[in-house]
Write a structure and sequence with these properties.
single chain, 77 residues, alpha+beta, two-stranded antiparallel sheet, globular
């Protein structure tokens, strides 16, 4: 799914998602949450194996770099 300037996309709390800027023009996104996200148990997934992990910011950065180098999202058809 691609969003255009000014678009709003609402997702249920349990939605697994990834966000990617597919342009050379920088993008700005605003995420609004309905609670204290620092108090919630958060999860992340290895982009190569899709293995689930507890959120760890150091590991997240590694996963983000790996995903950024991929030709497409792992579940994208």
């Amino acid at each position: 799914m691609s969003l255009t300037r000014g678009a709003i996309l609402s997702k249920p709390a349990e939605t697994v998602h990834v966000v990617q800027c597919r342009s050379n023009v920088p993008a700005i996104g605003l995420h609004v949450y309905g609670g204290d996200i620092f108090a919630l148990a958060r999860r992340m997934w290895n982009p190569e194996t899709l293995e689930e992990h507890a959120l760890d910011w150091a590991l997240y950065e590694k996963f983000a770099q790996t995903a950024s180098k991929a030709a497409k999202a792992p579940l994208e058809s």
